[in-house]
């Protein structure tokens, strides 16, 4: 008995050694934790009591962070209790406080909660707008914590649910898997299960029933392992519905009954799905009387416990049951309610607006992913450099103290390696200079020789067309000469891109990409914003790098589409070359061929970095980063070649 009173005293007066202000503010979070624990145990009245006590204490203390925590958690609790209007009030309060505190992660969480209330009320466009805001804020966080990554997973999973409400199964499945991948990265089994449920629903709706059953059993196993009653009920209901789709009616009824047996009244919404599912099974088994009995029970709960998007299928199921019973008037009424609600939620204008929002989000996400990838590459390089420095210091110290003579030997060996590296660098420079000279010479010969002869032939043909070309032979010959002239011009431009000197670097790259176009291959070129100032020799070297990447696509990738993108970021030139071809094993290609080695050599001379991502069957992505002239003057000198401008045709 004494121990019991002592426990109550500790709960009521925690942290007695702390200052009073600290005890009071900490106690706000203690009350919130108590409320969440009661919520998990299925005791909503007790949970609400603790939430209100926490809110009263936070208001009395004018404790902003406590008020924010209460508003955020209480709004989620109210949403799960199907009290959407109250949930919206607290979610908007959480948004206001988080903005005032400039707490970006909490602002994103508030947007997400508001989106859930809009979705529950059937305001899908507003739901999408707030979800995209939450995801944009989340994706702006450069080094997200584990908790912030978990929040991002929730936002993606909710976006998946929104697209499933719109019957956009591809998008629903896409975002469900993105959510699952984050949960997998966090090694959070509960979150993996919560993402799997949307994967399962999307698969079932698209007819992929075997995978839906497999993922449903995974979800059920997670719920049972962690004693999560809500997950277990959802898993059983969805599995039973898939069994119904497979026409395994006895197993479907058995599974629905299992769900009904463990569903408490404190978890609104779950019993509706179970009763509705049993009703649908009896209807498909040809027993409309029994189906109507369960439907009436489900429908009575649905009008108060279900969100609007979930009522669509209820109306349709009810109409089918009434029609089977010959109650055509009641069936027509339910069918009309189904059509009206479906049109209000899934009309083309709403879907178009949400798709546009999603496209903007994906574009921003792609840019962020490139920036994050570059940042990770730089961080990895810095970390590797730091480790190498410590390793060198350690080895040098040991060698100097124990093997002094070995240190001298290593010094001479390093000196020879440096000379060897410098010699190799000079050989590469000489090779590149020789290539540019030969290209310029060849381009000049093409222009002054072949092109001049073709131009003279074309003029001679033109003089004959008017008087002697009755059959059109000269005109056809003239057209063939014109085609040959253009081909020579393209080859000449590729060999000696004088547009770098005349029209500018960006224009030269875009012109090259246009010339590459073929009927079975589309090459898109994007130049984002103004590019950094680069030495002309550096521009030519970069042109050759892009030219070699694109040539490799044409020769080896068997691609139908490619992208060349150039952008400037803090004085750096970022180059991306991607294709949708057959891909290759990067590590094996480094070992076997010299093509990638030559590409690496060109970029090394510019003191740039190269990152190649590819695997068989999934295309190839090449990322190159070059510093501006201010940072790579030595690289510009190293890459210098003999440039000879060729007159335009």
Automatic annotation (TrEMBL):
Annotated coiled-coil positions are 347-381
What Pfam families does the annotation carry?
HATPase_c (PF02518), HisKA_3 (PF07730), TPR_12 (PF13424)
Domain Histidine kinase: from-to ranges: 542-630
UniProtKB keywords: Coiled coil, Kinase, Membrane, Signal, TPR repeat, Transferase, Transmembrane, Transmembrane helix, Two-component regulatory system
Q: Which InterPro entries match?
A: HATPase_C_sf, HATPase_dom, His_kinase_dom, Sensor_HK_TwoCompSys, Sig_transdc_His_kin_sub3_dim/P, TPR-like_helical_dom_sf, TPR_rpt
Keyword Oxidoreductase listed? The answer is: no
Annotated signal peptide? 1-18
Q: Which domain of life is it from?
A: Bacteria
Which ranges does the record mark as transmembrane? Answer: 390-411
Residue spans of the TPR repeats: 233-266
Protein name stated in the entry:
Tetratricopeptide repeat protein
Species, as recorded: Sphingobacterium suaedae
Q: What is the lineage of its organism?
A: Bacteria, Pseudomonadati, Bacteroidota, Sphingobacteriia, Sphingobacteriales
């Amino acid at each position: 008995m004494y121990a019991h009173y002592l426990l109550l005293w500790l709960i009521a007066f925690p942290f007695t050694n702390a200052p009073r202000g600290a005890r009071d503010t900490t106690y706000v979070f203690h009350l919130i934790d108590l409320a969440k624990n009661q919520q998990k145990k299925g005791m909503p009245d007790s949970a609400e009591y603790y939430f209100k006590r926490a809110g009263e204490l936070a208001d009395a203390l004018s404790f902003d962070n406590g008020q924010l925590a209460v508003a955020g958690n209480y709004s989620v609790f109210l949403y799960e209790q199907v009290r959407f209007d109250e949930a919206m009030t607290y979610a908007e309060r959480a948004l206001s406080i988080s903005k005032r505190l400039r707490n970006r992660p909490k602002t994103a969480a508030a947007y997400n909660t508001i989106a859930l209330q809009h979705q529950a009320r059937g305001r899908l466009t507003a739901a999408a707008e707030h979800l995209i805001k939450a995801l944009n804020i989340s994706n702006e966080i450069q080094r997200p914590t584990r908790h912030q990554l978990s929040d991002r997973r929730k936002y993606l999973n909710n976006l998946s649910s929104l697209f499933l409400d719109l019957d956009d199964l591809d998008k629903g499945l896409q975002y469900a898997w993105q959510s699952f991948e984050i949960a997998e990265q966090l090694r959070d089994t509960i979150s993996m299960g919560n993402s799997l449920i949307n994967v399962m629903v999307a698969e079932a709706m698209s007819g992929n029933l075997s995978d839906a059953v497999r993922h449903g059993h995974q979800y059920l196993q997670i719920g049972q392992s962690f004693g999560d009653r809500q997950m277990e009920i959802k898993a059983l209901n969805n599995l039973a519905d898939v069994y119904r789709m497979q026409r395994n009616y006895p197993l479907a009824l058995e599974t629905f009954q299992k769900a009904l047996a463990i569903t408490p009244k404190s978890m609104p919404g779950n019993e509706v799905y179970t009763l509705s599912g049993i009703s649908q099974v009896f209807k498909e088994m040809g027993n409309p009387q029994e189906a109507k009995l369960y439907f009436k029970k489900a429908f009575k709960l649905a009008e108060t416990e279900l969100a609007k998007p979930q009522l669509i299928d209820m109306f349709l199921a009810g109409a089918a049951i009434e029609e089977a019973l010959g109650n055509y008037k009641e069936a027509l009424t339910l069918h009309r309610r189904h059509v009206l609600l479906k049109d209000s939620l899934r009309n083309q204008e709403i879907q178009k607006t949400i798709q546009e929002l999603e496209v903007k989000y994906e574009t921003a996400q792609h840019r962020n992913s490139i920036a994050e990838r570059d940042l990770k590459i730089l961080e990895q390089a810095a970390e590797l450099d730091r480790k190498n420095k410590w390793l060198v210091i350690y080895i040098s110290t040991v060698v100097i103290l124990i093997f002094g003579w070995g240190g001298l030997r290593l010094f001479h060996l390093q000196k020879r390696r440096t000379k060897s590296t410098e010699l190799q660098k000079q050989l590469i420079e000489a090779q590149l200079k020789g290539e540019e000279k030969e290209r310029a010479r060849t381009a000049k010969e093409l222009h002054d020789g072949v092109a001049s002869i073709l131009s003279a032939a074309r003029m001679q043909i033109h003089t004959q067309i008017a008087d002697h070309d009755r059959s059109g032979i000269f005109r056809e010959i003239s057209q063939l000469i014109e085609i040959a002239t253009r081909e020579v011009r393209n080859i000449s431009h590729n060999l000696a891109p004088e547009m770098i000197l005349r029209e500018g670097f960006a224009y030269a790259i875009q012109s090259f990409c246009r010339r590459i176009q073929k009927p079975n291959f589309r090459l898109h070129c994007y130049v984002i914003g103004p590019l950094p100032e680069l030495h002309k020799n550096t521009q030519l070297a970069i042109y050759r790098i892009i030219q070699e990447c694109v040539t490799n696509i044409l020769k080896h990738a068997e691609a139908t589409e490619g992208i060349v993108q150039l952008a400037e970021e803090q004085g750096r030139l970022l180059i991306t070359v991607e294709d949708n071809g057959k891909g290759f094993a990067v590590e094996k290609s480094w070992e076997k061929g010299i093509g990638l080695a030559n590409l690496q050599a060109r970029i090394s001379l510019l003191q740039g970095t190269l990152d190649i991502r590819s695997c068989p069957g999934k295309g190839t992505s090449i990322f190159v980063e070059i510093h501006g002239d201010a940072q790579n003057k030595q690289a510009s000198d190293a890459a210098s070649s003999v440039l000879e401008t060729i007159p335009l045709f």
